[in-house]
Amino acid sequence: MARVSVRCFGLAAGVAFAVLVLTGPNRVANPASAARLGKKIANVTLSDTTGRNVILYDLRDKKAIVVVFLSFECPVSTSYMPMLADMAKQYRDRGVGFLGVCPGEDDAAQVARHVRDYRVPFPVLRDPRLVAADAFQAEFTPEAFVLDGTFVLRYRGRIDNRYAARLRPNATVSRHDVRQALEELLAGKTVSEPSTQPIGCAIVREAAAKALGNTVTFHRDVLPILQMHCQSCHRPGEIGPFSLLTYKQAVRWGADMEEFTQSHKMPPWKPVGAHGRFLNERGLSEAEIQRLAQWVHDGMPEGDPSEGPPPRRFPEGWHLGQPDLVLTVPREMEVGAGGPDVYRCFVLPTGLTADRFVTAIEVQPGNRRAVHHALMFIDTDGEARKLEQAAQRSRAAPKSDHGPGYSVAMGAGFTPHGYLGGWAPGQVPYQLPDGVGYELPKGADVVLQVHYHRTGRVERDQTRIGLYFARRPVQNQLWPVLLPGRIPLFGIPAGANHYRVEGRIWIQQDANLLNVMPHMHLLGQDIRVTMTVPGGEPRLLLWIKDWDYNWQETYRLKEPLRVPTGTRFDVIAFFNNSEQNPLNPNHPPRAVRWGEQTTDEMCLVFLSMTSETPGRIRRTFRPPAKVGKAD
Ligand code: HEC
Fold first, then answer.
1. Ligand 1 atom at minimum distance from 2 CA
2. How far, in Å, is the centroid of ligand 1 from the Cα of 91?
3. Which of 40, 268, 376, 453 is deepest in the core (most CB within 10 A)?
């Protein structure tokens, strides 16, 4: 169930508090609300960001009025800001007025800042006591209301159908509901579809039940969970769309925390069925999930602050001390407010005059709100420089994103010499085991691929990375071994909704496996990697049942796994190339082949291994002659 999501909680006396409804709008597909349709909306007076009062009925010279309930903490809501701004400008000359309303919001300075950051061209009003939300019977942010010139409600619901569900945007938008309602209204017609179901964060209204007895309390029971599992991302300036530091913030998001933890969507962690085997694992225990749910059910009591832990401190600066080499993206990257996510590669020359071994890497995003994850590749052939030059010369680049480097689908745009691992929010940098390192040849470039998440406003970033070099000789070089799944030459057939792709390799010498990184694009659905030692049974290494291209992570094994000569690795993946896949970039679907573009597919697993014998790790697509029994 969704909850409100405004920035300032404004808990002044009498302000509405959280609801405890157990069947929320996101659990059951409830019908779109028709409340107030065809009725005149009562006049409301609210203050804008300058403290000036805005009276709804003052807009009586308009042909139509669009009132949108907004939250600057709800990701669905912020993602609409660029298009709402465009729409307001387009319709201004046609006599349509736009108003934004922030339910539960009381902090004028905060709203003013958001209005500036998101470049909102229409008034945004605070509605701390939910007067407007009640007048419209608004339930969500974002939720749009279209009134005619006499303040009669003609449309209520979503802005368009860009979302299939929260966290699930569609690849294409086929219905523009607010636009359609406006066009019909301006043409003097009746609105053909007056109500649709909005998708977003619910507006909190009713007072919480008084907590009784010896219940779960925030400070004693909930805060430790938030500190341990949520605050690495949910704190100011980080990738999480809202903060979970204080009691008020937790109450505001209480019901959502329950829903998103019970469905294992938060904290984000994709692998299933391989539990307890990764160092960088995120996740709550069942007991912790239950404790959060119990707290919400008990009315979210605060309890005694002295029973809680002190605030968690997050270290600033380099975690592992001053790096041996710091590489900084040469200029700021500017990422536009809306559109599909951006994958950008930056070429970072190392200037090394001797070969080195890298034992640890730390990525420091310049803007943690926008950097979703990063991957690092090694280029020894100047391939990335060529791609960068071509991109910088090209005039075809989208106007909204500019900066150094070049844009790619999801990879590096070329076949790299090596791979230096990846970074995702909340990950703490680590040293490789003793005697192990990634070789960084002299003169090589590090290619940093950053996945930027659009936030609804223009974001600027200048990421840097710190490299730590081995002090002592490295016996074991970390090699990336590629395990491809075979997408047929004719491609993944159009319309196939569960298309199986497989691949297998055999390792030709004794080795150790340190980490695993699967990679697919938008049609990927399910990916499983197994390892079979000669004469043994297949062992599950990693299984992601609900592939999400947003969380392409390097999964680090707790202990390196021994890989004897003749070990087989298998990948089995499924792709959904049907109309039902909301991320399908093609409508109607068409056959999708292997390739680097977002509209192409890939099925690849990077296995990082060290060899017990010197030299690059050899893999084959056939079993080795002597140890073929693993099949
Ligand atoms: C690794 C970073 C990370 C961690 C750890 C994390 N989150 Fe999130 N969370 C995110 C991101 C990023 C989003 C926004 C997703 C998007 O916009 O696609 C999000 C979204 C959410 C949302 C949904 C907001 C919405 O309307 O879509 C809830 C609720 C949430 N997180 C709760 C939690 C809780 C509770 C925890 C801890 C138990 C947690 N998160 C841990 C990164 C994280």
1. 26
2. 35
3. 376
